[in-house]
Design brief:
Length: about 170
């Protein structure tokens, strides 16, 4: 009986851990395709995973918490752009990450950029929405900051869309 109970607890525990895991893409093109398909912005996490103390702290205090996991699944496509010192990395990922670091002018870690990807003439374009980094106060404070960035941009697009609809209706019906 004790063995059955232990096995049941192990299965239940591993299912709970699995439910909290997130899929972090490392390839920008793949992440962009998913974001375009799902109509979600990218959350681009610039990190030094094996040396940056603040990056590790952000991971432990926010990005691995159930509140963040639930929020991320609903709101963003996750892209990790890592700059490790000891962990080997594929040359094409290193190149991609260095190019994105320059485009987004990342000067310190951790930095998180939100961006809307789009495709034009076979090229991926990234519209910058805003950035943040480590925010003290746990997942609640960090998510408050992230939601402000996303909400601000969402309101702007709603405004532009309403203007466009007015112009189209006016030109179409008059």
């Amino acid at each position: 009986m004790k063995k059955i109970l232990i096995v049941a607890l192990l299965i239940l525990g591993s299912a709970t851990v699995g439910a909290q895991e997130l899929k972090w893409e490392t390839n920008m093109e793949q992440a962009s395709q998913i974001a375009i398909k799902t109509k979600k912005p990218l959350l681009m996490f610039f990190t030094g995973s094996d040396w940056c103390g603040w990056c590790i702290r952000l991971q432990n205090e926010v990005l691995k918490k159930p509140e963040f996991v639930a929020w991320a699944k609903e709101n963003v496509v996750l892209l990790e752009l890592d700059y490790p010192r000891r962990t080997p990395q594929l040359p094409e990922i290193q190149k991609q990450n260095m190019e994105l670091q320059q485009i987004f002018e990342v000067r310190g870690y951790p930095t998180i950029w939100f961006a809307n990807p789009s495709k034009k003439d076979g090229k991926t374009n990234l519209e910058k929405l805003g950035s943040t980094g480590y925010v003290a106060g746990g997942p609640e404070k960090w998510l408050e900051t992230a939601n402000q960035i996303l909400k601000k941009n969402n309101l702007f697009f709603q405004f532009i869309e309403s203007l466009f609809i007015r112009v189209v209706k006016r030109d179409f019906f008059f």
